[in-house]
Amino acid sequence: MSPARLAGRLARLLFAIALTGYLIFWKTDPSAILGAIAGAHWTWLGAAILLAIVDRLLMAWRWIALLENGGAGRPPVRRLIRIFLVSTFLGTFLPSSVGSDVVRAWSLSRERFGGAQAAASVAMDRLLGIIALVAVAAVGLFLGRHLLPERFLIFALGAAAAGSVMGLLVVYSSRAESFLLGLARALPPVIGNPSAKLVAAVRAYAIHHRVVTAVFVMSLAVNVLRVVQAWVLGLAIGLDQPGVVYFAFVPMINLMMQLPVSIFGLGVAQLGFDWFFAHAGVATADALALSFLFIGLGLLGNLPGAVIYGAGRPPETPPVETR
Questions:
Q1: How many CB atoms lie within 10 A of CB 245?
Q2: In 10 A of CB 166, how many CB atoms?
């Protein structure tokens, strides 16, 4: 690992620790957080774990659906699930979800599946997932518009709408394709040629409307499940806020956690839960307890990949640039 990449990872780790430490020790009493977590109702925690399992299955299924057009060269489903679970686990230690995407595309290309097509399947999965998250966030903000400051609401809804439109243009617009291909040709061949192949492979999905629609619907379901998971975890620690609060806040927090400034969203998630849920009258200690349970549930969902990774001794993972 190069010194620059190591420094980048250390900086993200230190940022996560510093932000989390500030919220725990300066804004509230750590014993209050621990007390809320320790008193969580196991029935609700069990329900959240079941929802997390369904979440992971849907995520794997939507990616495999994007590979349906891969032809005879596509690896068997069992192998694809293994790649997905292992890459999700490895992504725990990489910035946001980008690292797991790189590992997944690289692992699929090692199965003698076209490199550009492998990258395109992962890129489309990520793109449709983000668009679905933005769409759920926009609906949630509209439903919970009475909970947030008006200026923030207008900015967030505008950004959500703009992000959705831009994402769809990349998939369906021939003009966007021409622009991106022209940009790729202007780059050095070592970067431009793979970029052009990736653009062409992503654009190929534009004619597969049924697949894209099905994956988008599954992405919506995944993001709704994430909201329900947080709601159930809130019930586990005795929060009585209505569901609209979670639909208004959790998608925005999930968007924040996509930023590559931390490790597995640690610190960023705590800040998001504290700031947003304060608008619904939730105490800092309870909001932070909910945030730790939410992150813990995500880590628990990654454990199957850890078991497979440890037992199967897969090939060395690719270097992931984190600068």
A1: 23
A2: 13
In a domain, 321, yes or no: no
Q: Is residue 175 part of a domain?
A: yes
CB count in 10 Å sphere of residue 107: 25
The neighbouring-strand residues paired with 263 are 95
Q: How far apart are CA 18 and CA 267, in angstroms?
A: 8
State the CB neighbour count (10 A cutoff) for residue 49. Answer: 14
User: What was the pLDDT predicted at 77?
Assistant: 83
Q: Please tell me the predicted confidence (pLDDT) of residue 317.
A: 47
pLDDT in tens, 237-281: 999 999 999 999 999 999 888 877 787 788 999 999 999 999 999
Mean pLDDT, the chain, as a whole number? 81
Q: Is 95 helix (H, G, I), strand (E, B) or coil?
A: strand
| Spatial contact of 288 and 28, defined as CB atoms under 8 Å apart | yes
pLDDT class of 34 with cuts at 50, 70, 90: very high
pTM of the model: 0.81
3-state secondary structure of 147: coil
Asked whether residue 250 is assigned to any structural domain, the reply reads: yes
Segment 55-64, tens digit of pLDDT: 999 999 888 8
On whether residue 322 sits in a domain, the answer given is no
CA dist 253 → 36, 128, 221, 246 (Å): 21, 18, 17, 10
Number of domains in the chain: 1
Cβ(56)–Cβ(220) below 8 Å: no
pLDDT of 207 higher than 80: no
- For the chain, the straight-line distance linking the first and the last C-alpha, in angstroms and rounded, comes to 12
Structural domain of 34:
3-312
What tokens does 224 get? Answer: 């709704």
Q: Give, as one character, the DSSP assignment of residue 74.
A: S
- Between CA 276 and CA 249 the distance in angstroms is 6
Closest by CA to 300, choosing from 8, 92, 108, is: 92
Residue 321: the pLDDT is 45
